[in-house]
Structure formats: structure tokens, C-alpha cells
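Researcher: Here's a chain I'd like modeled. Treat it as a single chain, no partners, no ligands.
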Amino acid sequence: MTVEYSEGMRFVGHGGSGHEIVMDAGPQSGGQDTAARPVEVLLAALGGCTGMDVVLILRKSKHVPAAFRIEIQDERATEYPQVLKKIHLAYVFSPDVPRDRAEKAIELSLAKYCPIANSLAGVAEITHELRFEG
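Model: Modeled as a single isolated chain. C-alpha cells:
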């Protein structure tokens, strides 16, 4: 991964996949508000990492959800560097996925497969819940 300064407060990451990750700050910090903030990208990466694990695990048991999202709430320290103290993940599934399968997939992802969750767990308290909608 290479992160390159563009202009203002805009940075563009270039990873091995060949895709760009754009980040920017708001006007109050000298940015143009053209992209996500770095901590938003980190939390989105966590959601994407664990979400992909969950779908892969459910796919193996032939229970791919019709709809699925992860809602992420974070709590940061008030003092700089304002580290993440708590992260709460709400896994929200359509009702076509059996509860026991969803629970098992989430547990496997958070405890074993998602490197981002396991890296952040050493810094922040990560909690989760499971909900069904639809």
C-alpha cells in the first residue's frame, strides 16, 4: 500500500489490488470534504472484512442472506490522539438466515478469520449484536 498526497488534505491510497482509496478532511481542517475520513475508512475496512468472512461462511452452508449489513458505532478517546476505545458491530440480516448459522459465522469471523478485527481487538473493546429485519 502506498498513500500519496494529492492536494489540500486529500490523500489517495494505492493497494496491490490496483484500486484507489481516497481520503479527505472537512473544510474546518483544510480539506474539501470530497471523500471519507481515515477513521471512517478503517471502520469500513473492519465491516468489509468481517462481512466478507460471514458471507463466505454462510455460503458454505448454503445460507447466503438476501440482505445483510453491518452497522458500526465507535467511541473515541476525548484526548489526542483520540484512539478508538469501543467499537460496536450490529450484524443485521434478512430473516432467511438461521440464527444459529449467523451467530456461528460472526463468532468465527471475529475470533479467527478477520485480521482487522483481531488487530483492533488489542486496542479497542469490540462488541457485537445480531438482528433480523424484513
